Amino acid sequence: MSNHDNKVVSIEYELKDSKTGEILDSNIGKEPLEYIGGKGQIIPGLENEIAKMSVGDKADITVLAKDGYGEINPEAVQTLPKEQFAGIDLEVGMPLYGQGENGETVQVTVKSFDEQNVVVDFNHPLAGKDLVFTVSLNGVRDATQSEIESGVVGSSADSCGCGTGCAC
User: Fold this and answer.
1) Neighbours of 168 (CB within 10 A)
2) Is 48 helix (H, G, I), strand (E, B) or coil?
3) Which CATH architecture has domain 7-69+127-150?
4) Looking at domain 74-121, which of 2.40.10.330, 3.40.50.720, 1.10.240.10, 2.60.40.290 is its CATH number?
5) Distance CA 93, CA 120 (A)
6) 14, 121 contact by CB (below 8 A)
7) Would the pTM of this model clear 0.90, i.e. be above it?
8) Would you tell me which of 8, 40, 78, 134 could form a disulfide with 14, CB atoms 3.0–4.6 Å apart?
9) Lowest mean pLDDT across 46-55, 117-126, 155-164
């Protein structure tokens, strides 16, 4: 079992809903996903299983909802006055982005609306779903001190953080 804490981990993945088999996300044939191990940058159920893999391994990893995006919280569904959505052409199922209590970006999904109210769901769109990731572990390397401090892969003290190392 390897430990990926403070390592830059590079993966290729395909994500499916374990019940329907529907492909929900994939980066196959695109840029690999890179994250710094131990920083909570990917869901814990996935990170814990990738940490057991070796470079070159490919595995199907099932992540239960509780270890992924959590169970559905019924209290996260709220009814808000429609005037808060002025100028937005609402559609059921559409994602909207707003600001949370601590200034963070939050995503909500429009569940329904009428002339007075809009029902929005603050649950993550993948909450309550058991997921299957097909993962290829492409690489693991030591993170630089700058990457560890910033939590951003490719960051350096000489760089603007754009990831190109251009020192712009």
Assistant:
1) 8
2) helix
3) Roll (3.10)
4) 2.40.10.330
5) 9
6) no
7) no
8) 134
9) 155-164
